[in-house]
Structure formats: C-alpha cells, structure tokens
Model the fold of this input.
Amino acid sequence: MLWDMDGTLVDSEKLWDLSLTALYESFGGEMSRQTRAALVGASAEETMVTVYTELGLVHDPAAMADSIRWLHDTTAELFDGGLPWCDGAREMLEALAAERTTMALVTNTQRELAERALNSIGRHYFSVTVCGDEVATGKPAPDPYLRAAQLLGVPPSECLAVEDSVTGAAAAESAGCAVLVVPNDVPVPGGHRRRHVDSLAGLDTAALRRIYAEIERTARQRTA
Done:
C-alpha cells in the first residue's frame, strides 16, 4: 500500500490554504480559487512558480527559494498544532497495520515538513517514506511512486496507491500502480487504473483488496 499524505491521510490542505493566503498577503496580493485548485498536490517548486506568475513577480531563484522556506516554516507551525485526520484514514491504517500490510508514505511535501506531519500521523505505520525533495521530479511525475516501490522491493503494478489529487493520481498511475482516488477538495478525473470512493470511512481491508483486484482484472482485459 502506498499512501499520499496531504488531503488523503490528514486534512492538511486547509492548513496549506492558510499559509498560502498569508504568503499572497505578504506580497499585497490575493490567491484565486483556480490557482488554489491547481496547487493541490503540487511540489514546492511548482507551487512557487505558480504563485510568482499569478502575482506578476520576477522569477528570481533566490527570492523563490526564500518564499518556499517561508511557506514551509509557516505551515510547519500549523502542523505542530496537530493535523486532523481524513474520514476513515486512521482506522484504515490501523486495520492494515494489524494485518502486517507493508505500507509507504509518498508525498510531494519536503522531508523537513513531512517529518513534522509524521509526529501527528505516526511513523510506525510506514516501512518507508518518500518525500518531494528526495526524487528528481515530484508528482505528477512517477518518480516518487517508483522510488517507493523500489524501496519496498515490489513492482509498482503490485501496489495500490491512495490519492486525493489530480497530480497525485497521475503520478501513481503513470508509475504503473492501481489507484484508489478519494477526492478531497478538487474533483479527480477517472482513468483505466483508477477507482473512486467518496471516503475511506466504512471501507475495510477486504474492500481495498477487491478494488485492487478489479483494477488489475480490467487492465488485463484491456491488454488481452
């Protein structure tokens, strides 16, 4: 099992909303709804390119790096106050851990901030964690999911990834994973290797296995 973090396990996207809004205000601007939707699941670098473009700022690498640090420091303070779980997420982690299912955390969030989040979530659930600053290219590229599968020693095709965003679902699917999409704030389109549920609440581990088996069966039929 491969888990996204923000918006999938914990409802941290609302905390990112607060820090992004504060960043815009520091430049005397206001973030549009369209931009916020586009930033869900984005890497730090992609986020700052979008922010500077919308604000009409010069894409100066040093200034953008400073803004990334400011954004992460501000968000880290919010994370330290505790992260709210998404519906059913904690219960699912507990159930999978009880069955000794191997799990990885795969996030576009940088390692320093992800470690702060893991203080709330719990590191013990995951055999490995892969962060956005530990791969050549973050989501929507497949690199984070390919790296996680490699560290677990299993082919991506044998993994079920759980994602909430367009960016994350694209990354997992392009890596060859089956994808369970649990949308949070932004609609996520369907795909050949995707299945959607409204929430993890009410699902059990057997349901996850059925979803994975259905995706794989459909994929084999398409290639037969």
Q: What stands out?
A: The mean pLDDT is 93. The two ends are 26 Å apart (CA to CA). The beta strands are 2-3, 104-106, 128-130, 160-163, 178-181, 194-196.
